C-alpha cells in the first residue's frame, strides 16, 4: 500500500465544518497570490508556533505533496543558452553510449553501463555549466563525487573538451592492453591520478566520504589552515544506493555540524540494478522524510515545466492526489509504454484529470518530462541549494533510467545490465538526439558507430569551454601540488628511543607519548589530525583534550562536568582532535578526507586514526580500499591488538587476524612493533615516505598494531640497523653459543617478543639450547619483498636472482625456526616458503574468549613454555636433543593444564 502523503495523510480526519475550511483555504490562496510564497510561509510558521504555544496537537508532516519543492513563481531566470547546452548535452549522451557500445564488440566485451548517464545527463550538465567550480577558481574549487556508473558521461564531456581523444575512448576498461590510452571503468583516482579525484562506486562509501569531505573543509577553515568558505561538496547518488546503511547512517553529522557546504543530488530513476527500488511505495517520499528527519534541507524536483500548466489548472486537487497515490512501479511502467497508455492509466483515473489532457495529443502526453530532465528545474534546485544556509541540502530529482535510449532501454528492469544497442536502437537514439550522423555510417559496422565532435571551433564547443574557464577549469581534475612539510629531526623521537626505564609501559602508551612529541613540532605538529572513535581514554589519549582539544564547529557551549580536572573534556572550534563518537565508518571517512587534503586542497594533513584493532580492517575494510584508491596518506593505529591481550573483553574484541586482512590491501604497509623505539623508527620512515621531499612512492598508508600490555620498554640498542627494522626483521638477541649447543631461531612480533625472550632463557637454562630471538616488525613487508624477488627472477631468467631480505637475514641461520605471534598462524606463515629451515608456527587460531592472559596463551599454545616445547620437537626430529625431551618439557611446564 502506498503511504498517504502530505497533510492529507498525516492525521487529519473528517472535516467537521467544510464550509469554514473552504474559507480558510480561499484566504490562504489569496495570501499566496497577493503576497507570494515567502509571506505564506512566514504566516504558516507563526501559526504553527502559536498552535504549539496553545498546546494544539498537530500531525507530524515529514513529507510534502509529490510535486516540486520550488514554486514556479520562485524559479530564477536560467542564465545559460538553453539551445546550445541542449546540443552538446546530446552529443555527450551519444558519445557515452557509443563508447560503451564499442567496448562490447565481440573481441573485447569488457562491459560498461549505458543507462545511468543517459538518465542523469541533465543533472550533471547543469552543474558543469553553472555550478561546479574548478581548481583555478578563487575559492579553490568544489569537490564533486560522481555516481560511479555514470563515468562514461564524464569521459564523453572530456572528449568534447579536448582532454580525451577517440583513441582514449576506445580504451575504456582496457587499462593494460591500451596503456597510455585507457580509461578506468569507474572513478578510480589511483588508476587515473590526474583525472578522477574521488572513488565512488563502492556503494554507500561515496555518501560517507562526501559528508566527511565537507566536514574536513570546515575543519581546515576553522583551524586557520585554508579558506574554504566558498567551496561546495557535491555528491551524486542513486536512489537504490540509498538502501545501503552507509549511505544513510551518517546524515546526522552533516546536520549537527550545519554543513551547508554539502549537497546530495539523488538521481531518483526509481530503479535499482534489477528492478524498482520501491515498486509498491514511493522512494522520493521515503527519502524526503528520512532526510528531513535527519535535519537536512530537502528539495524535490519531480516534474518538468510541461506539467506547470496542468498543475495550475488542477483546481480540484485530483491531479496531485493521483501523483501522491501512484506507486513507483506504475511510474516506471508508464515510461516503458506510450502516451496513450499514460492518458488511460494515469490521467484517466478521474474525470477531472482526464479533462486536463483532453486537448493534448498522445505525443504531448508522452512529452511530459520528469523534473530531472528539465534544466530550468534543476538549475533552480542547485541555485537554491548553494544559497541555503544552516543545513546540508539533498536534491531529489526524478528521472528515467535509460532516458532517450529507446523502448528497449527506457525504464526497463534489465536496463542496467544492457551494454550494447541494436542497429535500430542506434538510429532511434541518433534521431532522438538529432546527431548529424548518416545511416551509412551506422550500417557499415555495428560495433564501430562513430563518435561525434563538431570541431574545436564550433560555437557550441567554444561556449562549453568558456563556461569551464569562468568556473575555474576542468572538473573532474586531480592535482597533487601541495605545500612542503618540514619533517622533525632526532629530537622528536628521543622519548621513543630512551625506553621506559624502571616503569612498565604498553606500546599503546609508547605510541601516545611519541605522538604527543610529534604534535609539538613546529610546522608539522599543527598538520597532525588525531582521529579517535569513542575510546580516547582507553588509549590514554585523554591527555590531549586540554591542549589539542576536540574539534567542534560550535565550540563548547555547556558547563563541563569535569572542568576542574587536569584532563578535562574540552571542545573547541579550533580543536585538533576529530572525535567521531562510536563510529568507525565515519572515522575512516574522516581519515580519508584528511589524508587526501594534499590533493583536494593543496594542504598536507597527517591523519593518525587510532581504534580497536578488531574494528578496523574487519569492520571498515572496504572503506580502506576506497582510501587506497583515493591515494590517502596517513597512519592507521590498531590499538589493543592481539587475540589474548584484551581477553577480558571476549570474542568480539579479540583481534587475531587484522594483519592478514590489512595485507590484502596493496596500499597498506603493515607493522607489528614490539617496542617504542621500533615504533619511532617506523613512524619516522613513514613520515619520510609519505611526506618527505625525496620520496617517489608516497601513496601508502601505514598500519601499526599496538598493545595494552605493560612491559619494560628497552632503550634503542646501540648500533641497531634501522633499515632492518623498516624492512621487517632484525636479530634482537643472539643466543649463548658457547660449548656447541644445539641452535634454533625464534621469530616473534609485537607482544609475543617478550614470550620469545623468556623461551630463549628457558631453552638455555633447562635444555642447553641456544636460540636467537628475532623481532619481526612486518611479516607482510617481508613477504611482499620476497614475492617481488620471485617475480623479478621469473621475468628475467638470465639475470642473477635477487635474494629476498628475509632470506638474507635468516636463510643461513642454524637450526629450525619457530615463529610465534598473538595472531592466527597465517600471519607468520607468510614468510615460510622463503626460508629453507624446518619451520613451525604457533598462533592463536579460532575464536577469542574471556580469561586471563596467561590462561588464554596456554590454551592457544603460544606462551613461552609452548615455544620451548615446539622448539624441542623440531630439534628432536633432527636428532639434536633427546627424543624424549619434548614429552619431558610438556610435563615440566604442565603444558596441557591451564594456569
From TrEMBL:
GO molecular function: pyruvate dehydrogenase (acetyl-transferring) activity
Cofactor: thiamine diphosphate
SUPFAM superfamilies the record matches: Thiamin diphosphate-binding fold (THDP-binding), TK C-terminal domain-like
Underlying gene: aceE
Region of interest (Disordered), residue spans: 1-20
Annotated protein name in UniProt: Pyruvate dehydrogenase E1 component
Span of domain Transketolase-like C-terminal: 728-863
Domain Transketolase N-terminal residues, every copy: 142-306
Superkingdom per UniProt: Bacteria
Job description of the protein: Component of the pyruvate dehydrogenase (PDH) complex, that catalyzes the overall conversion of pyruvate to acetyl-CoA and CO(2).
Amino acid at each position: 500500500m502506498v503511504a498517504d502523503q502530505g497533510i492529507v495523510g498525516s492525521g487529519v480526519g473528517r472535516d467537521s465544518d467544510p464550509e469554514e475550511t473552504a474559507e480558510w483555504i480561499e484566504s490562504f490562496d489569496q495570501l499566496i497570490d497577493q503576497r507570494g510564497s515567502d509571506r505564506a510561509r512566514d504566516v504558516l510558521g507563526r501559526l504553527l508556533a502559536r498552535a504549539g504555544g496553545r498546546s494544539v496537537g498537530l500531525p507530524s508532516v515529514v513529507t510534502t505533496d509529490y510535486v516540486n519543492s520550488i514554486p514556479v513563481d520562485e524559479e530564477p531566470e536560467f542564465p545559460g543558452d538553453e539551445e546550445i547546452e541542449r546540443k552538446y548535452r546530446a552529443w555527450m549522451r551519444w558519445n557515452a553510449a557509443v563508447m560503451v557500445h564499442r567496448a562490447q564488440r565481440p573481441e573485447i566485451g569488457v562491459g560498461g553501463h549505458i543507462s545511468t548517464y543517459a538518465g542523469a545527463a541533465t543533472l550533471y550538465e547543469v552543474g558543469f555549466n553553472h555550478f561546479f567550480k574548478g581548481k583555478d577558481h578563487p575559492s579553490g574549487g568544489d569537490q564533486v563525487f560522481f555516481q560511479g556508473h555514470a563515468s562514461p558521461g564524464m569521459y564523453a564531456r572530456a572528449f568534447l573538451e579536448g582532454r580525451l581523444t577517440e583513441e582514449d575512448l576506445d580504451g575504456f576498461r582496457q587499462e593494460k592492453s591500451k596503456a597510455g590510452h585507457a580509461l578506468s571503468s569507474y572513478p578510480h583516482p589511483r588508476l587515473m591520478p590526474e583525472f578522477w579525484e574521488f572513488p565512488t562506486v563502492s556503494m554507500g562509501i561515496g555518501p560517507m566520504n562526501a559528508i566527511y569531505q565537507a566536514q574536513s573543509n570546515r575543519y581546515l577553515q576553522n583551524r586557520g589552515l585554508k579558506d574554504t568558505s566558498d567551496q561546495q561538496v557535491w555528491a551524486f547518488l542513486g536512489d537504490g544506493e540509498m538502501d545501503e546503511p552507509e549511505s544513510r547512517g551518517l546524515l546526522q553529522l552533516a546536520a549537527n555540524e550545519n554543513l551547508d557546504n554539502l549537497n546530495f543530488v539523488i538521481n531518483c530513476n526509481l530503479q535499482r540494478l534489477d528492478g524498482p527500488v520501491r515498486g509498491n511505495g514511493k522512494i522520493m517520499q521515503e527519502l524526503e522524510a528520512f532526510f528531513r528527519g535527519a535535519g537536512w534541507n530537502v528539495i524535490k524536483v519531480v516534474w518538468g515545466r510541461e506539467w506547470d500548466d496542468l498543475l495550475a489548472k488542477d483546481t480540484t486537487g485530483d491531479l496531485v492526489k493521483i501523483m501522491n497515490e501512484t506507486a513507483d512501479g506504475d511510474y516506471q511502467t508508464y515510461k516503458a509504454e506510450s502516451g496513450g497508455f499514460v492518458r488511460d492509466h494515469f490521467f484517466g483515473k478521474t474525470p477531472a484529470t482526464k479533462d486536463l489532457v483532453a486537448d493534448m495529443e498522445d505525443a504531448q502526453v508522452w512529452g511530459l518530462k520528469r523534473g530531472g530532465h528539465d534544466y530550468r528545474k534543476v538549475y533552480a534546485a542547485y541555485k537554491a541549494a548553494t544559497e541555503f544556509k544552516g543545513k546540508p541540502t539533498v536534491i531529489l530529482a526524478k528521472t528515467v533510467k535509460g532516458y532517450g535510449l529507446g523502448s528497449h532501454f527506457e525504464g526497463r528492469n534489465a536496463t542496467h545490465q544492457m551494454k550494447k544497442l541494436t542497429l535500430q536502437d542506434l538510429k532511434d537514439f541518433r534521431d532522438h538526439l538529432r546527431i548529424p550522423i548518416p545511416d551509412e555510417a551506422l550500417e557499415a559496422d555495428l560495433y564501430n558507430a562513430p563518435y561525434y565532435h563538431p570541431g574545436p571551433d564550433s560555437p557550441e564547443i567554444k561556449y562549453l569551454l568558456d563556461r569551464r574557464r569562468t568556473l575555474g577549469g576542468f572538473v573532474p581534475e586531480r592535482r597533487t601540488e601541495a605545500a612542503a612539510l618540514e619533517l622533525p629531526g632526532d629530537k622528536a623521537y628521543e622519548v621513543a628511543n630512551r625506553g621506559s626505564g624502571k616503569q612498565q609501559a604498553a606500546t599503546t602508551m609508547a605510541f601516545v607519548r611519541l605522538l604527543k612529541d610529534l604534535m609539538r613540532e613546529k610546522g608539522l605538529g599543527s598538520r597532525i589530525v588525531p582521529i579517535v572513535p569513542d575510546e580516547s581514554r582507553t588509549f590514554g589519549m585523554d591527555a590531549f583534550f586540554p591542549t589539542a582539544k576536540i574539534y567542534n564547529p560550535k565550540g563548547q557551549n555547556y558547563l563541563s562536568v569535569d572542568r576542574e580536572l587536569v584532563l578535562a573534556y574540552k571542545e573547541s572550534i579550533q580543536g585538533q582532535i576529530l572525535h567521531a563518537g562510536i563510529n568507525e565508518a565515519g572515522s575512516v571517512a574522516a581519515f580519508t578526507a584528511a589524508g587526501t587534503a594534499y590533493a583536494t586542497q593543496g594542504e598536507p594533513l597527517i591523519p593518525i586514526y587510532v581504534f580497536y584493532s578488531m574494528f578496523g580492517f574487519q569492520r571498515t575494510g572496504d572503506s580502506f580500499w576506497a582510501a587506497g584508491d583515493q591515494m590517502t596518506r596517513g597512519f592507521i593505529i590498531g590499538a589493543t591488538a592481539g587475540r589474548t591481550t584484551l581477553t577480558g573483553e571476549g570474542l568480539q574484541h579479540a583481534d587475531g587476524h587484522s594483519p592478514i586482512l590489512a595485507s590484502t590491501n596493496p596500499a597498506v604497509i603493515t607493522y607489528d612493533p614490539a617496542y617504542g623505539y621500533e615504533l619511532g623508527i617506523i613512524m619516522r620512515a613513514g613520515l619520510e615516505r609519505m611526506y618527505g621531499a625525496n620520496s617517489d612512492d608516497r601513496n601508502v598508508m601505514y598500519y601499526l598494531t599496538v598493545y595494552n600490555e605493560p612491559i619494560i620498554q628497552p632503550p634503542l640498542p646501540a648500533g641497531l640497523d634501522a633499515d632492518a627494522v623498516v624492512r621487517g626483521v632484525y636479530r634482537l638477541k643472539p643466543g649463548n653459543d658457547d660449548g656447541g649447543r644445539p641452535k634454533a631461531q625464534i621469530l616473534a612480533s609485537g607482544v609475543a617478543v617478550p614470550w620469545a625472550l623468556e623461551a630463549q632463557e628457558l631453552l638455555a637454562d633447562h635444555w642447553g639450547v641456544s636460540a636467537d630471538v628475532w623481532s619481526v616488525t612486518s611479516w607482510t613487508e617481508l613477504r611482499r619483498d620476497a614475492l617481488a624477488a620471485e617475480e623479478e627472477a621469473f621475468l628475467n631468467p638470465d639475470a642473477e636472482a635477487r635474494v629476498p631480505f628475509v632470506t638474507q637475514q635468516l636463510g643461513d641461520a642454524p637450526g629450525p625456526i619457530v615463529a610465534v605471534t598473538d595472531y592466527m598462524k597465517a600471519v607468520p606463515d607468510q614468510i615460510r616458503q622463503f626460508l629453507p629451515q624446518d619451520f613451525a608456527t604457533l598462533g592463536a587460531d579460532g575464536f577469542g574468549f574471556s580469561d586471563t592472559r596467561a590462561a588464554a596463551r596456554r590454551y592457544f599454545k603460544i606462551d613461552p613454555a609452548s615455544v620451548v616445547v615446539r622448539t624441542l620437537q623440531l630439534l628432536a626430529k633432527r636428532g639434536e636433543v633427546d627424543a624424549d625431551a619434548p614429552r619431558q618439557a610438556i610435563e615440566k611446564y604442565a603444558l596441557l593444564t591451564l594456569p
